[in-house]
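Morning run. Coffee first, then this:
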Amino acid sequence: MAVNQPAVTATDNVRIGITLVLISVVVFGIQDAVSKLLVQSHSPYQLAMMRYWGFAGFSMVLVARQGPLRQAFVSKAPKTQLLRGVLLVGDIWLFAMALKTVPLAELQAIGLIYPLLVTLFAIPLLGEKVGLFRFGAVAVGFLGAMIVVRPGGGLPFDAGLGYAVASCSLYALYLVLTRKVGKLDSTATSMAYTGVVGLVLTSAVGVFHWTPVTWPELGLVLVVMVTTCLGHGLMIKALSLAPASVLQPFNYFTLPWAIVLSYVIFNHLIDPVSLLGAGVIVGAGLVVMARERMKGSVSAGAETPLPGKE
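And here it is:
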């Protein structure tokens, strides 16, 4: 006798999607912590190259499942697609450089300003209208960042801090351009360009910064490769189950997880004032997201900001 199975509802899908996002945050956090260990003895360029060896293969497999690979590279905006790939590589290089000196928790706190930068960059690049309310939220978010890096009590004003801010800026530009090409090209095309441009560029630079890798370090490199592919796979699956606007706020779980990893692995605990600043950034970001959702500014095809994208 057949047994009727309970139907999977939209609510169930959203719950699964949220769960997958939270798992991906954990995975990406582990990737960042392992990368911080590796970058102490190896060049960020070498690390980025080895990471792209795994990610490019992963992206090509996903693209091939959707159709012919050759067709995936047919773009209505090839120059923009190439620029996206270059921006993401620059973001990853800069983030790895920042990892070398900036504590993991504080780095993730600064990194959370990227949704605010997306709001600003979308004005000239996408022609989006931003009212005083969202401008105010963005200003408050930047104030929170200044609390984290406050002179004399926060992070030192050194190259590492500059790398962190530059990394956020490039990633925000990458996301805005992803929204732009999302109206012209398929997701497969965007993924194909991201993987191949990254592979070519990081390999062209990384080979000149190669240093020998020990067997234990090779194990850590494999962890970075696996977590990169697994994290993106989880996020892609989550986006197939729930709207991006629902999933975005849960990316902020990145911060508490980074605080835990920073303390457990590196014996560093973020100070209370910096934690307050991080909370201000998170609050401002959530306000901006809520306002964009009310205004319908985020298109259905827009790419969700990925946690631990570096």
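Confidence is low (pLDDT under 50) at residues 298-308. Good start to the day.
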